[in-house]
Amino acid sequence: MGERSSEPDRPRSRQATVAEFDPDTGAGAVLHDNGQREDFPGSAFGAGGLRLLRLGQRVRLDYDALGPCRVTLITLA
């Protein structure tokens, strides 16, 4: 039998809808399909190579596989 990790499974990526975006800092927030709001840092936006996000736009959030669950990359869904 395989062993299960005691650490909860973390998402590697999720889709969400842009709720806020500051083009000066690249930071913003999304709403997940379950209604949960999540902030993202400007560094995640910058890593995706995008120039702009629009409110209501669908995006994919990639998360850090190590350490605390945090958004590291934003791309279009």
Q: What is the topology?
A:
Elements: E1 13-21, E2 28-31, E3 37-40, H1 42-47, E4 58-63, E5 71-76
Antiparallel strand pairs: 1-2, 1-4, 2-3, 4-5
Overview of the molecule:
The chain has one helix and five strands, in the order E-E-E-H-E-E. It has 77 residues and is mostly beta strands. The protein has a single domain, classed as OB fold (Dihydrolipoamide Acetyltransferase, E2P) (Beta Barrel), CATH 2.40.50. The chain has a five-stranded antiparallel sheet. A hairpin with a 6-residue loop joins strand 1 and strand 2.
Summarize the structure.
It is built from 1 helix and 5 strands, in the order βββαββ. The chain starts with 12 loop residues before the first strand and ends with a strand. The chain has one helix at 42-47; strands at residues 13-21, 28-31, 37-40, 58-63, 71-76.
| Percent range of helical residues | under 10%
Integer average pLDDT: 88
CATH topology: OB fold (Dihydrolipoamide Acetyltransferase, E2P)
Name given to the CATH architecture: Beta Barrel
CATH classification class: Mainly Beta
Radius of gyration: 14 Å
Topology pattern, helix = H, strand = E: EEEHEE
Strand numbers in spatial order across the main sheet: 3-2-1-4-5
For the termini, the CA-CA separation is: 37 Å
Q: Any low-confidence stretches, pLDDT <50, length ≥5?
A: 1-7
Gross geometry:
globular
